Amino acid sequence: MNNADSLIKELKRFSSRIITFGDPIYDNRIPEFEMRHSLFLPKDYKYIINQTNGFSLMGNTVLGIYKISTIDSLESAYIREHNLVKVPMYKHIVPFSPDGQGNYYCFNTLEHTNGGTSCEIIFWLSNYQYTDEDKPEVVYDTFVDFVNEVFIDWTLEDYDYHGNRKK
User: Fold this and answer.
1) Is residue 22 a contact partner of residue 38, using CB atoms and an 8 Å limit?
2) How far apart are CA 33 and CA 96, in angstroms?
């Protein structure tokens, strides 16, 4: 997972004032999540989440998988967006990063990319009724590409690694 290792290394360059990581995962939470929901998470996400169990950089968040389901966990988001909303997500869609407006970046676990190590990242608009002809927009080919652009590149456009605004 060379790209994933490079991504983790780059994320760790940010000051702990502006980025937080979860504790590494040493148990079976990931396969248990997959079994519970009858799907497979992308390998690049699983590799990174095993080491970081979610992270937040200046308000942008990738959800982790915790022992106890919390409001900001992958489990809670999956249950909420599949069972507790007016327009539920398809079962193979996994919401992993909220946009702060009720929408999510999600894994489309049916569409594998990068030689099977990842899957399409879609942007899911909440309360929008998608159809077979009007599908959610594919925004990235891999989880690593998503984090590189949305978390790292977009942050570094306006801030340095310490959170200081660029002039």
Assistant:
1) no
2) 13
Q: What are the chain's domains? A: 2-158 (3.40.1580.10)
| pTM listed for this prediction | 0.94
Tell me the pLDDT of the chain (167 aa) as tens digits: 579 999 999 999 999 999 999 999 999 999 999 999 999 999 999 999 999 999 999 999 999 999 877 888 999 999 999 999 999 999 999 999 999 999 999 999 999 999 899 999 999 999 999 998 999 999 999 999 999 999 999 999 999 999 999 98
- Neighbour count for residue 66 (Cβ, 10 Å): 18
**Local structure of 27: helix, strand or coil:** coil
